[in-house]
Amino acid sequence: MKNILFDLDGTLLPMNQDKFVKAYFTLLAKKLIPLGYDPKTIAESVWKSTFSMVKNDGSKTNEQVFWEDFSKTYGEKAINDNSVFEDFYKNEFESLKDVCGFNPLVAKTVSFLKENNYKLIAATNPLFPKVATFARLRWAGVSPDDFELVTTYEDSTFCKPNPKYYNEILQKLNLNPEECLMVGNDVGEDMVAKTLGINVFLLTDCLINKKGEDISVYPNGNFNDLIEYIKKDSEN
What we know:
6 strands, globular
């Protein structure tokens, strides 16, 4: 394996997803209500537009899909208020760092892999803009510059759990799937990479297993286990 793909939320950045989402929508509503947005429909509309990104067929960027769908609810106003969303991610969004955890082994793992010439990819579900994604990487104690590619909604045309999301990464960087390892905490979204021939490692610190699958079929464990797994592979 030469290339390590890392999920972000729940993997590089420890978090309780439900707690994070609740805090996120509370902050976003506080930002938008003074502009005339209905507090009862904000979360519902964002979720609806997010689901449209998940269903993206690759014909548009996720960013285009989101705003086209969001504007169906709020019309031209939504497009005109794009700058407000950008300001939100640059400012208020930063306070969500306090809702997330921190694992010092993340930075150590990234440093170890870079020192050993692995190519790193931040394969986070591209539902957020670049500014928000880069912020969450920094919260995890790593730099966006540590990665050859960081998937964001501006430059991606598919989402997890669609295998085409992973194929898009392989094509962009001209990677051989057999030389890649996908590390993630979500069985449904991250382990699907295996269908493309990509090796997988299930990080169990913040495990998400919505369908109750048998996780013993995947190499799994914490960051220490991950390092040992990669070391053994390099020795073969």
